[in-house]
Amino acid sequence: ADAEDGRRPAMLLVDLDDFKHVNDSLGHAAGDQLLVLLADRLRDATAEASTVARLGGDEFAALVDGVRADADVTAIANRVTAALQSPFMVRGREVRVAASLGIAIAHATDSADDLLRNADLALYRAKALGKGRIARFTPELLTAAVERLELESELHSALHQRQFVLHYQPIVDLATRAITGVEALVRWQHPERGTVSPDTFIPLAESTGLVVPLGRWVLAEACRTVAGWNAARCSARLLTVSVNVSGRQLQHAGFLEDVAAALHASGLPASQLVLEVTESMLLEDVDAAVRRLQALRALGVRVALDDFGTGYSSLAYLQRLPVDVLKIDRAFITHIAGCGREAAFARAVITFANTLGMCTVAEGVETEMQHDALCALECGFGQGFHYGRPLSADAIYATLSASWTTHRPSNESSSPATAEQAPTKTILVVDNEASIRRLARRILEAAGYAVVDVPDGDEALRYLERHRNLVDLVLTEVHTPALSGSSLVELLHGATAAERLMPPVLLMSGGARSQSKPGEPSMEPVARISKPFTATELLGSVGRALGNALAA
Fold first, then answer.
1. Is 176 helix (H, G, I), strand (E, B) or coil?
2. Which of 59, 394, 453, 490 is deepest in the core (most CB within 10 A)?
3. How many CA atoms lie within 13 A of 214 on its CB side?
4. Residues 489 and 444: beta-carbon distance below 8 Å
5. What is the pLDDT of residues 406-464, one digit of tens each?
6. Do 405 and 411 touch, CB atoms closer than 8 A?
7. Tens-digit pLDDT profile for residues 492-547
8. d(C-alpha 245, C-alpha 211), whole Å
């Protein structure tokens, strides 16, 4: 309660930033010594406090009995911050730490629990602002906390009540403006609140762990939808679908199984799924992140680094990460046509990515001038309002169908493949070496072909059984794991027309792997190409194989 002389109790909560790093690097005994030294400095800096206590871990509280004005407690907080500026000597080492502080001053109706709760809310706000910050409690913080609690409760039931929907934003080939893929974006259609912003519910889902089941649903729904579009041939080429992955999802033990299950249930080839991760989520443990991304790529999916340029953005660091696609943040695209630092950064990233054989996607493209500048820099793909806003699945399907009608091929193409082939012919690439699949994809897509790639013959056969009318040519290694390329040929060209899955086959062979095994059937009638191959060799062999199939 307010004292008669105007003095009021106040609470300061102090929480060390990155204290875990001290324990991890110097050991827990050193961490305990640091806490003892810190407590001494806190007592000196908060001389007015009647009580200074450690609440647990690296969090301390100071209760000040009589505060006349807000400035009094702010002055104490500033002294605490100043006291931490000097390094601590811990086991002969200098250790520097920073702390976040939350301040609350009691009012007439506040209980002790209210005061502690308010200080805790202020501390939460301080940590959200960054390291070494001070925040003071305001009634708005309590309102926001209550709102957050209510929203969290509603979020739990939203998934079961099917309140989430997916919208899709086009990703286009900058050279042709054709839609080559979509990014799936989750939206919450709340029955009373209306559309809840992802900026509001995604962090909440992340902190509560609900992002794992929500992400599982997004994966399954996005794969199912895009697989259906591809089966319906609503686009000139097979579409990819990009799905955002949160840090908590990536670390979840069952995430690989979730991805595999979504692909299997939908029939979407793994190569048509792009999983987007951000730089920031990879920085906490780069080695662990690399292992997890490598496991994802082993499934055949592609990995994109989203919002590149907003985090660490080290090109040396980029070389370590097993990523296939760089998505350049919109902040560097806004002035891409100018001569400023943002434009220079974007140019450097595009050049570097092209050198490493990565795809580049420019985010936030909004003008024709930006489009032209990106084309001049040989950026591969673009995304933004200039090409289309996020739309519902039905609206995107209509857009794709209209786009396919508008962009039907003419007879004026100078592509290595003919104009008739380039937009419509789909090649299924089968090889257990990811590097060969990526090389073939780059060459074939640059020539205008649509490409699906899988790691072995079994997966190729499953895809053909589902989508036999979508594949025009199978490009397969002779000796893939499980079902070999030669066995796949036998199945594709069965004894009767009813047994055949029909597409012609181009066999890849190279080195020791190309030697025929005892008892293996002769593949003489089937076209072959040796590895390693050049772009000219591959495109020539593919063109001949397709031409022979048409002639037959």
1. coil
2. 453
3. 31
4. no
5. 544 444 333 333 333 344 688 999 888 877 888 888 888 878 788 888 888 778 887 88
6. no
7. 555 444 444 568 888 888 744 444 444 444 444 468 898 888 888 899 899 888 88
8. 9
Structure tokens at 470: 């979508």
Phi, psi of 77 (to 5 degrees): -60, -40
User: Terminus-to-terminus CA distance in the chain, angstroms?
Assistant: 94
What pLDDT, on a 0 to 100 scale, did the predictor assign at position 547? Answer: 80
Hey, what are 522's tokens? 């002769």
In angstroms, the CA 442 to CA 449 distance is: 10
DSSP string, 238-305: PPEEEEE--HHHHHSTTHHHHHHHHHHHH---GGGEEEEEEHHHHHTTHHHHHHHHHHHHHTT-EEEE
Q: What are phi and psi of 107, to 5 degrees?
A: -120, 175
Residues 331, 336, 338, 340, Cα dihedral to 10°: 50
Q: Which residues in 18-115 belong to E strands, given as ranges?
A: 49-56, 59-67, 88-90, 93-95, 98-105
> Which span out of 18-32, 46-60, 185-199 was modeled with the highest average pLDDT?
185-199
Q: Among residues 436, 434, 428, which one has the least CA distance to residue 459? A: 428
Length of the chain, please? 552
Q: How many CB atoms lie within 10 A of CB 25?
A: 11
DSSP 100: E
CA atoms of 239 and 469, how far apart (whole Å): 16
Q: What angle do CA 485, 489, 491 make, to 5 degrees?
A: 115
Q: Quick one: which H or E segment has residue 546?
A: helix 535-551
- What is the rounded CA–CA span in Å between residue 515 and residue 484? 13
Residues 49/14, Cβ–Cβ less than 8 Å: no
Q: Over the stretch 270-305, which tens digit does the pLDDT of each residue have?
A: 889 999 998 777 776 778 888 899 899 888 899 999
Note the Cα 11 to chain centre separation in Å.
41
Q: Which amino acid is at 452?
A: V
Strand partners, 213: none
Structure tokens that stand for 53 in this block: 């206590």
Helix axes of 255-266 and 211-231: crossing angle, nearest 10 degrees:
30
pLDDT at 268 over 50: yes
Please compute the mean of the pLDDT values over residues 177-190 and round it to a whole number. Answer: 93
**β-sheet bridge partners, residue 454:** 430
Strand partners, 87: none
Structure tokens at 122: 């202020």
Instruction: Please report, for residues 53, 88, 96, 101, 318, the alpha-carbon distance to residue 85 in angstroms, rounded to integers and kept in the order given.
Output: 21, 9, 7, 14, 34
Selection from 80, 81, 83, 114 nearest residue 8 by Cα: 114
Q: pLDDT at position 49, please?
A: 65
CB 363 within 8 A of CB 342: no
pTM comes to 0.69
Q: What single DSSP character describes residue 464?
A: H
137 vs 13: CA distance, rounded Å = 11
36-72: per-residue pLDDT in tens?
A: 998 888 888 887 667 888 888 889 998 888 777 778 8
